[in-house]
Structures are given as C-alpha cells and as structure tokens.
TrEMBL record:
Pathway participation: Metabolic intermediate biosynthesis; chorismate biosynthesis; chorismate from D-erythrose 4-phosphate and phosphoenolpyruvate: step 2/7
Pfam families per UniProt: DHQ_synthase, DHQS_C
Example GO BP: amino acid biosynthetic process
Protein name as it appears in the record: 3-dehydroquinate synthase
Principal cellular location given in the protein's record: cytoplasm
Reactions mediated catalytically: 7-phospho-2-dehydro-3-deoxy-D-arabino-heptonate = 3-dehydroquinate + phosphate
Localization terms from the record: Cytoplasm
Length: 360
C-alpha cells in the first residue's frame, strides 16, 4: 500500500492506494467519530463490493446503513440526492455518522454533497472504485450534482476524511470506463507534468492491458499531481482551474448529448482536443503537438472528435460554465505539452473556428 497526503492544514487527509484495501477495517476505523456509517453505492457496485467493505466493519462493531442508488450520470440530480437524505433521516443519523461513498465519481460527488449539506455538514470517506474516481474525483473535495442546464451546477467544496483506493476493484471495471479514467490521467501530463506525459506515451499499451504496476504508478502520479494543485488552491481561485482542461467543452458535450450518452472522460478527451486545436490557432501548439495529443488519446481508445452539436449550441452550453466571468468564457489552453494557462485572453473568432470543426 502507498499513502499520499492532501495537505490542507486541519482538513488534511491521507490517500491510501493498494490492493485489497476494502476488507481492511483498520484503515477506516481511526477516521470514524462513532461506530456508525452510511455507505452510499449503486445497483452495479453494491452487489460487487458492498459486503466486502461492510462485513469486516460490522465484525468490528460498526453499525452500517447501506444506501443503494440507481446507476448512471442521469441520476446525479436533486431527486436522487433526496433519497440519500431520506435514508439518513429514516435511520436517525447524527452529526457523528460518517458517510462512505463506494463507487465511481457519480456516487462520490453525490455522497460528498450529501455529507456537506446533511445537518450542515457530516464527515465522509471516499472509496473510489473506477479508475477515474481513483485518479481524480475522490481527491480534492469538489462535490455536487448536475442541473438539466449544466454539469455540477449545484455543489460545495467538502473534503473527505480519507480516500481508500482499492486497485483490485478495477478488475471488474468495463474497458470503456477504464479508457474514460485514462482521459483524466493524460490531463495531468498535459497541464503540468511533461515527464508523466512522456511516460504515458511509452506505457499506454501496458495501461490498456491493465498491467498492475503501470496502473499503480499512473494512479499514484495522478494523485500526487492533484494533491499538489488542491493544496495550493483548494477553492479554485487560480491554479486549480487548470484541472478543468477540456472540461468547458466536455461538460457542454455531456449536457448537450444528454447525461450518460458520452461518459465524462470521453467528453474531457474530445474537449481536450478542441482546447488543443484552439491553442494551435493561438500559435502556441504546433501541428506536431496536436497530433501527439490526438495520438495518445487514440491509443487509449478515447474519442478525439467532438459531436456536432452546432457552434451556437456549444457557445450556449459553454456560457453556463462555472468559470465564466463578466459573461466571458474562460478556458484552459496549452502553451506547450506540460504547460497550461487559464485565460480569457483568446480571440473569439478563433474559438468559433475551433467549434466549427465539429460541424459535420
Ligand atoms: N469531484 C471531482 O473532482 C470530479 C472529477 C472528475 C469527475 N467527476 C465526476 O465523476 C463522474 C464520473 O465518474 P466515473 O467515471 O467514475 O463514472 P461513474 O461513477 O458513473 O462510474 C462509471 C460506471 O462504472 C460502474 N462501476 C464503478 N466501479 C465499478 C467497478 N469496480 N466494477 C464495475 N463497474 C463499476 C458504475 O456503476 C458506472 O456504471 C462525473 O459525474 C464527473 O462529473 C468529479
Ligand atoms: O478537481 C477539480 O478541480 C477538477 O476540475 C477535476 C475535474 O476533472 C472534474 O471533472 C470536476 O468535477 C470539474 O469541476 P467543475 O468545477 O468544472 O464542475
Ligand atoms: Zn473531470
């Protein structure tokens, strides 16, 4: 097992990464205020891992309330969030009850938001079971739900007490979801870690084949990158925005196509290629850079061409992004592979040209 720390003064917490961690209650028990937990999961992950996590806790005297939600990005909404509150109230949960998110980013974001808001804030633990959630969503404390008009529009910053990333759970993850996770891994290389990007290019075949050592390294390096950025800028007043590379486009794709049609990581992949295209039009990236970025996404079986929603629809959806300031869409662009900037200072006609490439 490897352990990293997210350094946030009194809100600091460990990230444990390793095999068979689910069934090690000693990793969880020190982080509980009382021996009562509510474990939020979904109808796919529950049958696979709920007993593995909960039985050893029960054996140690912990009272466990399981809460099983429907599975899918289309359920990351206020109605399903309400089901978490219902179960917590019906079971008379208190401020010292710890919520545990067992699942991917959808479960993690919703459980975290329920924890941030139930009784004005209760502790929570992330037990991420997708590659995407192990390398990104379980770390950093962004929690929330979608609105029909936009992704993650309602939410809160609420840090977990612990992240327990059991890499054995990835054995049951579908290939398409593995690729979606790799999109966020590539992101770290592109925005701030050229050596990691070079390593990813050299090791993509191993990652796609689920080589345990390659996966373990990619998860650790991703979490190190994310933890450093979050420690420097917890609430996204500057540097943290770089973690949004490709997301303004990607979130427009997810909302525009209907939640769940394109996976989050797929939207990020196609969105990253649009950000790269605009960066080339700005004179920052070369054609060779853009081809390198496309090639690494292709090697991960990720989409590199965005759907043709139409330029007007893209601009409308992107105009609802959380980073919009004074009505201007602010974007993360690449000055080079390994160096991103957060800027409003791009020529609007170049963004239009980029978006027009999506018209079939
Ligand atoms: N908070 C953040 O910082 C942050 C970062 C990135 C993404 N996100 C959010 O995370 C979500 C995407 O997360 P995701 O990609 O994990 O999707 P997800 O949570 O929908 O999980 C993907 C699918 O895999 C299934 N699954 C989960 N673990 C499994 C396992 N071990 N074996 C078999 N199936 C398994 C799930 O049931 C689901 O069907 C989006 O809503 C996105 O907005 C949040
Ligand atoms: O942690 C962050 O900060 C990120 O931006 C990570 C992203 O991968 C993630 O998808 C996040 O949920 C997007 O946040 P949002 O603020 O654009 O909704
Ligand atoms: Zn993301």
């Amino acid at each position: 097992m490897q352990t990293l720390n997210v350094e946030l003064a009194e809100r600091s917490y460990p990230i444990h990464i390793g095999e068979d961690l689910l069934s090690q209650p000693d990793l969880i028990l020190p982080h509980l205020k009382r021996k009562q937990v509510a474990v939020v999961t979904n109808t796919t992950v529950g049958p696979l891992y709920l007993d593995k996590l909960c039985n050893p806790l029960r054996d140690r005297g912990v009272s466990v309330i399981p809460i099983v939600l429907p599975d899918g990005e289309q359920y990351k909404n206020a109605e399903v969030l309400g089901k978490i509150y219902d179960a917590l109230l019906e079971n008379r949960c208190e401020r010292h009850t710890t919520l545990i998110a067992l699942g991917g980013g959808v479960i993690g974001d919703m459980t975290g938001y329920a924890a941030a808001t139930f009784l004005r804030g209760v502790p929570f633990i992330q037990v991420p079971t997708t590659l995407l959630s192990q390398v990104d969503s379980s770390v950093g404390g962004k929690t929330g739900i979608n609105h029909p008009l936009g992704k993650n529009m309602i939410g809160a910053f609420w840090q977990p007490k612990l992240v327990l990333a059991d890499t054995t759970t990835l054995n049951t993850l579908p290939d398409r979801e593995l690729s979606a996770g790799i999109a966020e891994i590539i992101k770290y290389g592109l925005i701030r870690d050229i050596e990691f990007f070079n390593w990813l290019e050299a090791n993509m075949t191993k990652l796609m084949a689920r080589d345990p050592a390659a996966l373990a390294y990619a998860i650790r390096r991703s979490c190190e990158n994310k933890a450093e950025v979050v420690a420097a800028d917890e609430r996204e007043s500057g540097e943290r925005a770089l973690l949004n590379l490709g997301h303004t486009f990607g979130h427009a794709i997810e909302a525009g196509m209907g939640y769940g049609v394109w996976l989050h990581g797929e939207g990020v992949a196609a969105g990253t290629l649009l950000a790269a295209d605009l960066s080339r039009r700005m004179g920052w990236l070369t054609d060779t850079d853009v081809e390198r970025i496309a090639a690494i996404h292709r090697a991960a079986n990720l989409p590199t061409v965005a759907p043709s929603l139409g330029t007007a629809a893209y601009l409308e959806l992107m105009g609802l992004d959380k980073k919009v300031q004074d009505g201007k869409i602010r974007l993360i662009l690449l000055q080079a592979i390994g160096k991103a900037v957060f800027t409003a200072d791009y020529a609007p006609h170049l963004l239009h040209e980029t978006l027009q490439t999506t018209d079939a």
